[in-house]
Design brief:
Strand order of the largest sheet: 9-8-7-10-11
Bound molecules: N~2~-(3-carboxypropanoyl)-L-ornithine, phosphoric acid mono(formamide)ester
Number of domains: 2
CATH topology of the largest domain: Rossmann fold
Number of helices: 13
Radius of gyration: 20 Å
CATH class of the largest domain: Alpha Beta
Order of helices and strands: HEHEHEEHEHHEHEHEHEHEHEHH
Strand content: 5-15%
CATH architecture of the largest domain: 3-Layer(aba) Sandwich
Structural class: alpha/beta
Number of strands: 11
Amino acid sequence: MKHYLSISDLKNLQEAVKEGIELKSDPFSFDQLGKRKTICLLFFNNSLRTRLSTQKAASNLGLNTMVMNFGSEGWQLEYNDGVVMDAGKSEHIREAAKVVSQYADIVAIRAFAGLIDREQDEAEVVLNGFLEHATIPVVNMESSVAHPLQALADAITLEEHKTVERPKVVLSWAPHPKALPHAVANSFINMMKLQDAEFVITNPVGYDLNPKITEGCRIVNDQEKALENANFVYVKNWSSYRDYGRVLHQNRDWMMTSEKLGGANFMHCLPVRRNVVVEDAVLDSNQSLVIDQADNRTWAAQLVLKRILKESQLELHADKK
Ligand SMILES: NCCC[C@H](NC(=O)CCC(=O)O)C(=O)O
Ligand SMILES: NC(=O)OP(=O)(O)O
């Protein structure tokens, strides 16, 4: 694998999940693979899990890690070409990406959607800027439209906890006071399309996700109906896609409760707002898988970094021949 930008870069999800579970049982099996190599993690937005699990994964592989909160500590970057840079932007992506490529062997980037301009968000300006101008592999740590490390961790969690061959998995919208991105939901859907499962998306009218992503998926506006006989309920808020980036209403009655969850397992990528998105009783019950999901972020990241390092080794061999 050259880069990890979306779940489709894995080629075979089932094999990837198996490999992730193997790494979990033997975390230091490839601890020489990253020796004398460096990964640079660039954060344009906040993080707890992604930052620490990726750093831990890198450490398990013998990689050095450099972390930079680029959003608050880096120079403001210009991404457009031919601009007279006499306003707020101090540095161009053309130089920044090449400079980082000299210090590191892999660069990982977190850059959320701005949720103001849909076209601009879908152009993935930051991620694609690095992809175009960096000379090293690029890893997506949540971009405007995708969070593939989360989706891979979620696939591992589903595999570990499923008790039936073909589980029913429901992705349910939940209320939230802020406008949140679509990335987690998008990648979860793309991952679920590769699973043998009964998959249902439930959200209020006005909150349908990008139709290109939900194509072929069942979308139900009646949450109670959607939740019937579910084995896993993945809860997430997202802002409106149609009225791009808007919070249309709070819909408090969409909060996940023990009563609605029934016997299903509860999943959420975290961070989660208690008693807004989901009530305490759910998070504090043994039906909640959120801590396992966060654990699996390490093995998902480790699998991705392992594959990238293996590929770069192969390329090095090919260059020498
Ligand atoms: N990386 C996991 C989720 C990150 C982000 N959530 C947030 O920004 C929540 C912030 C808050 O609750 O204030 C999202 O939904 O994409
Ligand atoms: N789930 C997730 O990506 O968490 P962070 O935003 O804390 O990294």
